[in-house]
């Protein structure tokens, strides 16, 4: 199904969307993105990653727009000369839910800007830091509760225990936006932010209506931007919830699904 629309702004998720499983952008996809940019379509990246882990891909794609990081809680240009948004978690509620999560032995990560904080170093911590080139600090038991300006949390465990987290933090639920990352993980940001609201803010700054936007994603943290965009596209490897609300479904991230979608909906190939 092809939809004709005047697309002026495109937002692309990274992991599981633009990137293949080797964390690379296919060269032909880069060429297509450069082609739509040459036609006047503006492109940004919208990721749950820390800002520092988004920038290398933005440079590769020659993106000059502000980038959306931490699932919409942080928006800035590549050099951080223009920070449009930096929304930290409500500190009192944050301390309470971190304490509860750690009492229940959940593996919890907390991000303060471009630094990852964990209670103790694990093999997963090392692998993540190396893969995404993110600095980390182990702060000891209950040290996470002392962090002054947390932006995002990520919690990992068995699926059944992950499903129990909503009930665990119910007294403070109004302060947070919670999205499934995988069946074994979820992320938490401030209730006022998500990728869709970040796109709206960026669109307002550019004078672009959401009707003239296109977004592509694959996980629960992409729901906001898929819902709000004029055209919201889910990857074939996307979660079922995202597929249900998407305008269309493209190929998987290992089959250059972003490239296929951009060719179809913008280049009209």
Layout: helices, strands, pairs:
Elements: E1 9-12, H1 14-18, H2 27-38, E2 42-45, H3 55-60, E3 67-69, E4 74-76, E5 83-86, H4 91-103, E6 107-112, E7 115-118, H5 123-132, E8 135-138, E9 152-156, H6 159-163, H7 165-168, E10 176-182, E11 185-190, H8 195-206, E12 213-217, H9 223-228, E13 231-234, H10 240-245, E14 248-249, H11 257-267
Parallel strand pairs: 1-2, 1-12, 7-8, 12-13, 13-14
Antiparallel strand pairs: 3-4, 4-5, 6-7, 6-9, 9-11, 10-11
Helix pairs in contact: 2-11
In CATH, the homologous superfamily of the largest domain goes by the name HAD superfamily/HAD-like
Count of the domains? 2
Q: What portion of residues belong to β-strands? A: 15-25%
Radius of gyration equals 18 Å
Secondary structure tally, helices = 11
> Per the principal axes of the C-alpha atoms, what is the gross shape?
globular
Order of helices and strands, N to C? Answer: EHHEHEEEHEEHEEHHEEHEHEHEH
Q: What's the N-to-C terminus distance? A: 13 Å
Please state the structural category: alpha/beta
Mean pLDDT: 94
Q: Can you summarize the main beta sheet?
A: 6 strands, mixed
Can you tell me the residue ranges where pLDDT is under 50 for at least 5 consecutive residues?
none
Helix content: 25-40%
CATH topology of the largest domain: Rossmann fold
Q: What is the level-2 CATH architecture name of the largest domain?
A: 3-Layer(aba) Sandwich
- Sequence of strands across the biggest β-sheet: 8-7-6-9-11-10
CATH class of the largest domain: Alpha Beta
Number of strands: 14
């Amino acid at each position: 199904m092809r939809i004709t629309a005047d697309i002026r702004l495109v937002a692309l998720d990274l992991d599981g969307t633009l990137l293949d499983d080797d964390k690379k952008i296919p060269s032909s996809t880069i060429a297509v993105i450069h082609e739509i940019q040459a036609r006047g379509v503006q492109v940004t990246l919208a990721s749950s990653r820390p800002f520092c882990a988004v920038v290398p891909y933005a440079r590769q794609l020659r993106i000059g727009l502000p980038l959306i990081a931490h699932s919409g809680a942080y928006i800035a240009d590549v050099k951080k000369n223009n920070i449009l948004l930096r929304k930290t978690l409500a500190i009192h509620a944050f301390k309470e839910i971190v304490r509860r999560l750690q009492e229940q032995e959940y593996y919890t990560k907390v991000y303060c800007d471009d630094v990852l904080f964990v209670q103790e170093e694990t093999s997963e911590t090392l692998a993540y830091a190396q893969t995404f080139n993110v600095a980390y600090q182990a702060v000891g038991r209950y040290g996470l509760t002392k962090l002054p300006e947390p932006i995002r949390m990520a919690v990992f465990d068995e699926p059944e225990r992950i499903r129990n987290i909503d009930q665990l933090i119910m007294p403070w639920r109004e302060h947070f936006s919670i999205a499934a990352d995988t069946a074994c993980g979820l992320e938490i940001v401030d209730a006022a932010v998500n990728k869709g609201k970040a796109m709206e803010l960026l669109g307002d700054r550019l004078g672009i209506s959401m009707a003239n936007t296109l977004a592509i994603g694959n996980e629960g943290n992409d729901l906001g931007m898929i819902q709000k965009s004029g055209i919201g596209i889910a990857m074939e490897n996307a979660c079922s919830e995202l597929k249900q609300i998407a305008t269309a479904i493209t190929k998987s991230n290992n089959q250059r699904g972003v490239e296929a979608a951009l060719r179809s909906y913008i280049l009209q190939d």
